[in-house]
Design brief:
Residues 146-247 form the Cyclic nucleotide-binding domain. GO terms for molecular function: guanyl-nucleotide exchange factor activity. By secondary structure, this protein is an alpha+beta fold. α19 packs across α26, α21 (481-503) runs antiparallel to α22 and α22 packs antiparallel against α23. The protein folds into 4 domains: 2-123, Orthogonal Bundle (Arc Repressor Mutant, subunit A), CATH 1.10.10.10; 133-248, Jelly Rolls (Sandwich), CATH 2.60.120.10; 287-385, Son of sevenless (SoS) protein, Chain S, domain 1, CATH 1.20.870.10; 434-590, Ras guanine-nucleotide exchange factors catalytic domain (Son of Sevenless (SoS) protein, Chain S, domain 2). The strands form 4 sheets. Strands 1-2-4-3 form a 4-stranded antiparallel sheet. Strands 5-12-7-10 form a 4-stranded antiparallel sheet. Strands 6-11-8-9 form a 4-stranded antiparallel sheet, with no helix packed on it. The chain contains 26 helices and 15 strands.
Length: 591
C-alpha cells in the first residue's frame, strides 16, 4: 500500500507540522480514506475504508504517531512501518509490482475490514460510541445465533453495552465452576470447552453460542468452567448490571398470552404510539389464529390506505396470508368473527356489535385481497368464502381429465426409464474442455452475459416461492419452479468451473484457466451478480480442483462479510441464493 501511494500520490507521505512540532513522513487519516475510496468500487463507504486501514493498524503495518489503537477518519497523523525504519524509496520495479498487486490487496482488505471496524468500535467505552457505531454493532448482532430469539429493541439495547474481550492462548479459563456470575459472554470467534468437575468436557461451544447466562438469570454460582479450546478467541461481554436491566426492560415491555400453559401470542410494546394515543404493540410470535384475532381486534374502522396501520397489516399478511384454510376457518368462527354472538344487552347494542364485527372482517378481506389477488382466484377455500359459484360437473370433468393426463405422462416416463436404463453417450458429459475457444473470449463480456441470463431467471422468482421452499411446498400446494431453476443455474455454473479445470490436462493452461475464472468472478462482483460470483468461487474450492491447487480458502468463512457487503450495495443485485435460503429455516423456526 505504501509503494502504491508513493507511485500514485507521493504528496500524501511527507513531513507534517502541527502545534510547532514536526512529524516525519506521515499521512493524514482523512487523506488515506479519500485515496482508498477512489481506488476501487469494492470500497463501499468511508467507514468501510476506515475498517480496511484498521486492519493494517492492528497488524503493525501502519501506526498512529501517538500510538493510539484505533484508526479515525480525522486530521490525525499515521506512519507506515517502512517510514519509521527509514526504508529507502521504492524503485520503479517495486512500484510496478505494487500497482499489479494493489487490486488483490484492496479486495483482501475489503473482506477483513468489517471485522476490524467492529473490533475497533467494541474497544471504545460504551459512552463514547456514536450513533453510526451503534448501528454497525446492531447489524452484527442480527446475525448472531445466540441472540436470534431476542427482539430488535433488545438487540439495540445490547449494542450500547457490549464490551469486547479477547484471549490469546488456548487453555485460558474464562471462568471457573462455583464462581459468582458477573458477566454473560457471546463467542464471536473461536471455540470453548464446557468442563464440569467429575465429568470432564461435556460439550464444545463455537462461534455464535453464548455462555454464562444461567448464573445471571438464577443468581446462582457458575455451573461449569469455560476453557478456551483454541488460540485467539474473541468474546462479546455483557456485565451483570446491564444484563439484569435489559431483562427487566424486556419483561416490562412484553405481553405474553397463554392458554393451557402454552404461549399462544407474544406482543412487544412499540416505542411509537398509535394515532389515537394508545399504546401500540408489535406481534413477536403466536399461533395463526391468535395473530389474526389480534389484527381483527386492533384494526381501525378507517379503510383509507394511507393509514400507517394498513402498511403494517399489509406487511404482516405477506407472512400469514398463505395460510388460507386457517384464515378462512377462523373468519367463519361463530364466536369472535363474522358471525360473532353479541353479548347480552339492548337490541340496539347487539345490532351495533354484529355490524361492527362484520365490517371488521370485510375490511380485513378487502385488504387481504389487495395483497393476494391472484391467490383468491386459485384457492378453493377462498373461492368458497367469497361465494363464487361454479358448475360442479365441469370441475369434476376437469379434474378427471387432468388426472388421466397425469397418469399417461407417468406411464410414458416409466416406459422410457425401462427402455433406456443406462445413460446415452450425450449424457456422459464432455471428454475434452473448451479452453481453446474459452480463452479467446473477454472475461468481462462473459461475466456480463452471465449476469443478463441470471437476472432474467432471478426476475421470474416470486417472493412467495421462498416461503414455499422454506416451510415446505406440500403445505401450500404451490410450485417453486422458478426458484428451482435459479438454484439449478448455480449448480450448473459451479460444476462448469470444476469440469473445465479437471478436463484441462496441461499445468500451464490450467493456471491460465484459473486466472480466467478469477477475472470472471471479479467482473460478476462488479456487475452485482453475487450468485454467479460465489458459484465460480465455490467451483474453484471444489475438492476436485483444490486438490490440484491447494490454494483456495473455504468461502463459507466469508458469509458474515457477504451479508455486510450486501447491505452496502445499491440495488438491484442478484443475491447468493443458497446462503439466502440457508437463513430462512432458522427464521421460520423462530417465527
Amino acid at each position: 500500500m505504501r509503494n502504491a501511494i508513493l507511485s500514485r500520490a507521493p504528496h500524501m507521505i511527507r513531513d507534517r507540522k502541527y502545534h510547532l512540532k514536526t512529524y516525519r513522513q506521515c499521512c493524514v487519516g482523512t487523506e488515506l480514506v479519500d485515496w482508498l475510496v477512489q481506488q476501487s468500487t469494492c470500497v463501499h463507504t468511508r467507514s468501510h475504508a476506515v475498517g480496511m486501514w484498521q486492519v493494517l493498524l492492528e497488524e503493525g503495518v501502519l501506526s498512529h504517531v501517538d500510538q493510539e489503537l484505533g484508526f479515525q477518519d480525522k486530521y490525525l497523523f499515521y506512519r507506515f512501518l517502512d517510514d519509521e525504519e527509514h526504508t529507502p524509496l521504492p524503485s520503479e520495479e517495486e512500484k510496478r509490482e505494487s500497482e499489479e498487486e494493489l487490486p488483490e490487496t484492496i479486495l483482501f482488505l475489503a473482506q477483513m475490514g468489517p471485522d476490524a471496524l467492529l473490533r475497533m468500535i467494541l474497544h471504545k467505552p460504551p459512552g463514547q460510541r456514536t450513533g453510526d457505531d451503534l448501528e454497525i454493532i446492531y447489524d452484527e448482532l442480527l446475525h448472531i445465533k445466540a441472540l436470534s430469539h431476542l427482539s430488535n429493541t433488545v438487540k439495540r439495547e445490547l449494542a450500547s453495552v457490549l464490551i469486547f474481550e479477547s484471549h490469546a492462548k488456548a487453555g485460558t479459563v474464562l471462568f471457573n465452576q462455583g464462581e459468582e456470575g458477573t458477566s454473560w459472554y457471546i463467542i464471536q470467534k473461536g471455540s470453548v470447552n464446557v468442563v464440569i468437575y467429575g465429568k470432564g468436557v461435556v460439550c464444545t461451544l463455537h462461534e455464535g453460542d453464548d455462555v454464562g447466562k444461567l448464573a445471571l438469570v438464577t443468581d446462582s454460582p457458575r455451573a461449569a468452567s469455560i476453557v478456551l479450546r483454541e488460540d485467539n478467541c474473541h468474546f462479546l461481554r455483557v456485565d451483570k448490571e446491564d444484563f439484569n436491566r435489559i431483562l427487566r426492560d424486556v419483561e416490562a415491555n412484553t405481553v405474553c398470552l397463554k392458554e393451557h400453559e402454552q404461549a399462544v401470542l407474544v406482543l412487544e410494546k412499540s416505542p411509537r404510539a398509535s394515532s389515537l394515543g394508545n399504546i401500540r404493540y408489535t406481534v413477536l410470535s403466536g399461533t395463526p389464529e391468535k395473530i389474526l384475532y389480534h389484527f381483527l381486534e386492533t384494526m381501525r374502522m378507517d379503510t383509507h390506505h394511507s393509514d400507517p396501520g394498513f402498511l403494517f397489516l399489509k406487511f404482516s399478511m405477506l407472512h400469514i396470508g398463505d395460510s388460507y384454510v386457517i384464515v378462512v376457518c377462523y373468519i367463519f368462527n361463530p364466536v369472535c368473527t363474522y358471525h360473532a354472538v353479541a353479548p347480552p344487552g339492548s337490541e340496539q347494542e347487539r345490532l351495533e356489535y354484529a355490524v361492527t364485527c362484520k365490517r371488521r372482517v370485510l375490511n380485513l378481506v378487502l385488504r387481504w385481497a389487495a395483497v393476494h389477488t391472484y391467490h383468491l382466484q386459485e384457492e378453493p377455500a377462498a373461492l368458497l368464502f367469497l361465494e363464487v359459484h361454479t358448475h360442479t360437473e365441469q370441475h369434476t370433468h376437469t379434474r378427471t381429465h387432468l388426472r388421466s393426463c397425469l397418469s399417461l405422462c407417468v406411464s410414458v416416463c416409466r416406459s422410457c426409464m425401462g427402455v433406456c436404463p443406462t445413460p446415452l453417450p450425450d449424457q456422459e458429459g464432455p471428454s475434452a474442455g473448451s479452453m481453446s475457444s474459452f480463452e479467446l473470449m473477454s472475461s468481462k463480456d462473459l461475466a456480463y452475459q452471465m449476469t443478463l441470463y441470471d437476472w432474467e431467471l432471478f426476475s421470474c422468482i416470486h417472493e412467495h416461492e421462498l416461503l414455499y421452499h422454506t416451510f415446505g411446498r406440500q403445505s401450500f400446494r404451490r410450485t417453486t419452479a422458478n426458484l428451482d431453476l435459479f438454484l439449478r443455474r448455480f449448480n450448473q455454473v459451479q460444476l462448469w468451473v470444476v469440469t473445465e479445470v479437471c478436463l484441462c490436462g496441461q499445468l500451464s493452461k490450467r493456471v491460465q484457466l484459473l486466472k480466467k475464472f478469477i477475472k470472471i468472478a471479479a467482473h460478476c462482483r462488479e456487475f452485482k451478480n453475487l450468485n454467479s460470483f460465489f458459484a465460480i468461487i465455490m467451483g474453484m474450492s471444489n475438492p476436485a480442483v483444490s486438490r490440484l491447487t491447494q490454494t483456495w480458502e473455504d468461502p463459507s468463512r466469508n458469509h458474515r462479510a457477504y451479508r455486510l457487503t450486501v447491505t452496502k450495495i445499491e440495488p438491484p443485485i442478484i443475491p447468493f441464493m443458497p446462503l439466502l435460503l440457508k437463513g430462512k429455516p432458522k427464521l421460520g423456526h423462530i417465527q
